[in-house]
Design goal:
Elements: H1 5-11, H2 13-17, E1 22-26, H3 33-44, E2 49-53, H4 60-65, H5 90-95, E3 101-105, E4 121-126, H6 131-135, E5 138-141, E6 150-153, E7 158-162, H7 174-184, H8 194-204, H9 212-216, E8 221-222, H10 250-254, H11 257-260, E9 274-278, E10 284-288
Parallel strand pairs: 1-2, 3-4, 4-5
Antiparallel strand pairs: 6-7, 7-8, 9-10
């Protein structure tokens, strides 16, 4: 039950401590000081314990690693080490009335909260005319994950290759759009080829000095964990689950009529009365009693 996670853990303490090793997966319900409390619980078991912090989207871990967070640079170096001040976080960007321009890439914040007091010139990269795209001054149609090449870092730090499956006309990847705009602004950002970008990441981001050929052949490469304390701004209130379901995670799932026809029973719906059905082999199958709408 939400808010009683540690009480539940204590009930399983003896069983968990008897295991040879343990992996604890946790989501948005555990954040801020609760993360330290969870690690303290794991340490108290006296067995090897690993922790996996679950995130909503496939490359969220990768974006953090290469500097998306407002006060951390690539490799989790504090931004003040470079003589810079921290940037704005998610809520601050959406509400800042002093911003001249706001560029939203592959996100739809207006589906969950208002844009706020900002009067910024709004540019959106998206595949669909979302709530945010409808508000935009300029919309760049972008390629889907299956129409572009690159890499993604999963939640456990494995870098995996993403290969383009189909060539399409009229859309470009976010990387291509970025470099085309930079060219018009007479800014040289280097090479726009995904393989060249990966090489730059592998040489400039701590933990990413893995074998490039290994990734290019399709095998996952594991990044090295960073040991030691990292100084950062703690904002537990910004840790929010997107509330996706199993079949409608992400933009493509949201706009798929077929996936939205698949019925699920997440969260509170699991509290519906359960009906036990005896099986011939002596096992028990639980069947949810549904109600007509």
């Amino acid at each position: 039950e939400f808010g009683r996670e540690f009480e539940a853990l204590e009930n399983f303490r003896a069983k968990l401590a008897a295991e040879p090793e343990l992996v604890i997966l946790f989501g948005a319900a555990i954040k801020g000081e609760a993360v330290g409390r969870l690690v303290a619980f794991g340490d108290s078991l006296g067995i090897p314990v690993k922790y996996v912090c679950l995130v909503d989207y496939s490359n969220s871990r990768g974006s953090y690693d290469i500097g998306l967070l407002p006060d951390l640079m690539p490799g989790y170096h504090n931004i003040r080490e470079a003589g810079l001040e921290p940037g704005l976080n998610y809520d601050q960007m959406l509400a800042d009335p002093t911003l001249d321009a706001l560029w939203i890439v592959g996100s739809n914040p207006l589906s969950r909260q208002p844009l706020g007091a900002t009067n910024a010139f709004l540019v959106v990269n998206d595949m669909f005319l979302t709530e945010t795209a409808r508000r935009a001054d300029v919309v760049f149609p972008v390629a889907s994950a299956y129409e572009k090449s690159g890499t993604a870092t999963n939640v456990t730090g494995e870098v995996q290759k993403v290969s383009r499956g189909a060539r399409t006309m009229g859309t470009k990847s976010d990387l291509e759009i970025l470099f085309l705009l930079a060219k018009e602004m007479r800014e040289n950002l280097g090479s726009a080829k995904p393989d060249d970008v990966l090489r730059e990441i592998s040489t400039s981001v701590r933990g990413y000095n893995f074998s490039i050929p290994l990734v290019q052949t399709g095998s996952p490469a594991t990044t090295m964990p960073l040991n030691g304390r990292i100084e950062f701004q703690s904002n537990p209130d910004l840790v929010r689950s997107a509330g996706n379901t199993l079949y409608t995670s992400g933009t493509l799932g949201r706009y798929s009529k077929m996936l939205n026809c698949v019925l699920e029973a997440p969260g509170e719906l699991y509290r519906d009365p359960l009906k036990k059905i005896g099986m011939r082999d002596g096992s028990v199958l639980l069947e949810t009693q549904t109600k007509e709408q």
